[in-house]
Amino acid sequence: MQLYLFSNFKSDLKDRSYHQSMWKMAAPMILSNMTIPLVGLVDSAVMGHLDEVHYLAAVGLASALFTFIIWTMGFLRMITTGLVAQSLGRSDNPMIRQWLYLSAILSLIISSIFLLINPWLIELILWWIEGEAIVEEKVIEYWNIRIYGLPVSLLNAVLIGWYLGMQNARLPFIMLIVTNATNIILDLVFVNYGMDVDGVALASVIAESLGLLIGLAYLPKLLKQYPIAEKLKLAWHKLLYLLNLNKDLLIRTLALEAVFFTIHARGSELGAETMAINAIILNFLLLVSNGLDGVANAVEAKVGKALGEQSWTNFRKSVVIGGFWSLAISVLMSFGFLIAGQYFVSLITDISSLQNTFNEFWIYSILIPLVCVASFWLDGIFIGASAITTMRNSMIIALLIGFIPLYFLSLDLDNHGIWLAFISFMMMRAMSSWYFFKKGLRKGRYINLKKSDMSL
């Protein structure tokens, strides 16, 4: 008996109802996710039109450092989505609530720890960046404001993950749209009144707080739709399960962030202008990742629900249709950077030296969507299946085999070497993820074949 995935590829793609169901989840997430990098681009544009390059360099680096914390704690969204979707597929109302409450408690514990160790974190940041003194000063100014919004950021991640697991993309859409629109407006207002990086940081904290209030306001209404027969008692051993899943995801995220930290550290060695160029490219990368994540979010929710239902057909359709639309969006984005990349840069900054230097690195913004697409699509499957160990293994392989060797071999190429190593990293990540995915299918790790409605 041979398990297959793509022999009915055409028939899966002809299922219009599943396309519609997928896009009902994906469209709001793509639109809302895309506003996240737009905020970063507006931050960069506001700073890029001030007189000095160091404002743009500082915001690019400081926001990346804070994003490192958020991404490191990404399990609060990712794992919550997969576990809740599986509980929903099993109609397990108590566990639907358990994963919400336990993830929220864990987010507050983690936030408290970070706030307590913040003085040492600042020292670590100063040791790491080793950039120009004025850039370091502005980075710390930004950090000391954003860190106090960390509890809000992590609670937002929990709520968004929970709503997605519940197959509800409308609330995350509203939360993210309001948050990011407010952030953009406050950026412009605060900087117009004489603030710089401190205004950008304060705008983010206020905007995320507003998004959290919106998410919490709708929560009681949705919970009423999934009642429980008796008073809920938190299963605290499940908190240990969350931490165990986080262990693998933490290793995976640290491997990913080692790549981004290296990009920033190497850029700081090459000067403020290189840091600014890399900040622009990373904003483009953030645009790509959030766009592809919109489809991946839908795949997470659909795969998790299919596994909870033990439906092979729905699992297969989630994988195939999610992969199709991920590829289509990546090609569209690559084409967009090809025809309009230089125009985007002119909107971000009017510093002519930066505009001219970017032309040398334009090709990387075009390639990034194409080399990233497979990793995001497969990560969506792994998250929906709670296959976090698989994600960890592919990321470690990509770092050790794809990034590190090429990084050291291309040091003489300066900033080009950084981005060539990144391209190699993403390609190795995609290949290793695909290998582990096929291996998992053959071994039946995703679904119980005896109970499924699998076609053979």
Would you write up a description of this structure?
It is a single chain. This protein has helices at 9-13, 16-48, 53-72, 75-89, 93-116, 118-129, 133-146, 150-165, 170-192, 197-223, 237-269, 272-309, 312-348, 352-358, 362-384, 388-409, 415-442. With 456 residues, the chain is mainly alpha-helical. Helix 3 (53-72) crosses helix 7, helix 4 (75-89) packs parallel to helix 12 and helix 11 (237-269) runs parallel beside helix 16. It is globular and about 60 Å long.
What gyration radius follows from the Cα positions, in whole Å? 22 Å
Q: Categorize the overall geometry.
A: globular
Structural class: mainly alpha
Low-pLDDT regions = 1-5, 451-456
H-E string? HHHHHHHHHHHHHHHHH
The portion of residues forming beta strands comes to under 5%
Number of beta strands: 0
Distance between the termini: 7 Å
The number of helices is: 17
Which percent range fits the helix content? over 70%
Mean pLDDT: 82
The biggest sheet, with number of strands, parallel, antiparallel or mixed sense and barrel status, is:
none
Please give the structural blueprint.
Blueprint: H1 9-13, H2 16-48, H3 53-72, H4 75-89, H5 93-116, H6 118-129, H7 133-146, H8 150-165, H9 170-192, H10 197-223, H11 237-269, H12 272-309, H13 312-348, H14 352-358, H15 362-384, H16 388-409, H17 415-442
Keywords:
456 residues; mainly alpha; disordered C terminus; disordered N terminus; globular
Question: Quick recap of the structure?
Answer:
With 456 residues, this protein is mainly alpha-helical. The chain has helices spanning 9-13, 16-48, 53-72, 75-89, 93-116, 118-129, 133-146, 150-165, 170-192, 197-223, 237-269, 272-309, 312-348, 352-358, 362-384, 388-409, 415-442.
